[in-house]
Amino acid sequence: MEEKVRSLVLRLLKRLFGEIAEELLAKIQTLSLQQLEALASALLELRLRSLTWKGG
Predict the structure, then answer these.
(1) pLDDT tens, 8-55?
(2) Hey, how many other C-beta atoms are within 10 angstroms of the C-beta on 16?
(3) pLDDT of residue 52
(4) Are 47 and 16 in contact, with CB atoms under 8 Å apart?
(5) What was the pLDDT predicted at 55?
(6) Distance of CA 36 to the CA centre of its chain
(7) Torsions phi, psi for 20 (to 5 deg)
(8) Which sign, positive or negative, has the C-alpha torsion 46, 32, 37, 40?
(9) Are 13 and 20 in contact (CB under 8 A)?
(10) In contact, 37 and 3? CB cutoff 8 Å
(11) Phi/psi of residue 54, each to 5°?
């Protein structure tokens, strides 16, 4: 489960910001499941807001 959430976080980060720095990738690898879930939730909200601002 943790790896699936981590994969989702990485996909969302890439979609929102492009390539991810190695330093950030290393930090993401150390996050707990609870931290990954919180980050995924925040990134999804950011993605939804960006779609709204762009008009869908």
Answers:
(1) 999 999 999 999 999 999 999 999 999 999 999 999 999 888 888 766
(2) 11
(3) 84
(4) yes
(5) 65
(6) 8
(7) -110, 130
(8) positive
(9) yes
(10) no
(11) -85, -5
The structure tokens 């499941």 sit at: 33
pLDDT for the residue numbered 51: 83
Q: What is the amino acid identity at position 13? A: L
Using alpha carbons only, how large is the chain's radius of gyration in Å? 12
Question: Cα–Cα distance between 5 and 51 in angstroms, integer?
Answer: 22
Q: What per-residue confidence (pLDDT) applies to 23? A: 97
DSSP per-residue codes, 16-44: HHSS--HHHHHHHHT--HHHHHHHHHHHH
Confidence of residue 56 (pLDDT cuts 50, 70, 90): low
Give the distance, in angstroms, between the CA of residue 33 and the centroid of all CA atoms in the same chain.
Answer: 13
Question: Tokens standing for 27?
Answer: 């930090």
